[in-house]
Amino acid sequence: MDYYNYNGKLLEGSKAFAGPSSRAIRYGDGLFETIKSANGELVFADDHFARLWDGLERLRFQLPTHFTPARLQQEILDLLQKNKQDKLARVRLTLFRGNGGLYDPVHLHPEYTIQTMALPDTAGQWNSNGLVLGIYEAARKCRDAFSDIKHNNFLPYVMAALEAREQQWNDALLLNDAGRVCDSSIANVFLLKNGTVSTVALTEGCIAGVMRKNVMRLLAEKGMPVTEAAITVDELLEADEVFLTNSIFNLRWVQRIGDKKYDCTDTRKIYAETLSTILP
User: Fold this and answer.
1) Residue 13 — very low, low, confident or very high, per pLDDT cuts 50/70/90?
2) Which residues on neighbouring strands pair with residue 197, listed in sequence order?
3) Matching CATH number, 131-275, of 3.20.10.10, 3.40.50.970, 3.30.420.40, 3.30.1330.60
4) 33-71 burial by CB neighbour count: b if 16+ within 10 A, else e?
5) According to CATH, what is the number of the domain 3-118?
6) Is the pTM of this model over 0.85?
7) Is residue 277 very low, low, confident or very high in pLDDT (cuts 50, 70, 90)?
């Protein structure tokens, strides 16, 4: 039986922790991080916790002195050991305010859960078949003060993922409130055109992805700086190659969006020269 961590205590997976007065259930009042664990280590842990702490500050949480990244990292490692997940695993760290109404929370301190799930050995390897994507049209991602953090109000992403499942796509792309490319339901978007790499700018409403940040850094170190830009659907469909990045699957190339088919020659080189040698 797998266990999870609730506010520092290990509970069996079937044990409930939240009641009907939880602000997490009522309002989605919180945020989360998804972190990859490999051989007992958290990949890009500093970047994940820097993003998390930035989000906690923006959402006006009040942090007790004992609530630190070091403590949470140790609790994650303890849970991985308890669940016997010492190879590849997905870690989901969810933080939220406790009970209370809209104007009268009991307190502003974060409560939290930690879950771990084993990953297959193929997670993060080159996806030789390529992804098939579609564009989700029914909702737009708003550009606001919170659009780049991973908060718990993710309904457009949830519905985009359901659309992808119904249409038998591997993932769905979301557009922002200006109708331009934002991100996918679980990943950041990159494209190549005439040898130039670009990605959606954070001002366009996409998540400030940890893998996005590190792919940009690694490419710059290789002399291939990435341009951050506002990308239209037409520009996406006119690209030579497209790939997605996130912390679990690293980098995956896209072979088709609608009727448009893409090559993967340069994308495969990017994968081979950056991620394949340093990441699980």
Assistant:
1) confident
2) 192
3) 3.20.10.10
4) bbbbbbeeebbbbebbbebbeebbeebebeeeeebeeee
5) 3.30.470.10
6) yes
7) low
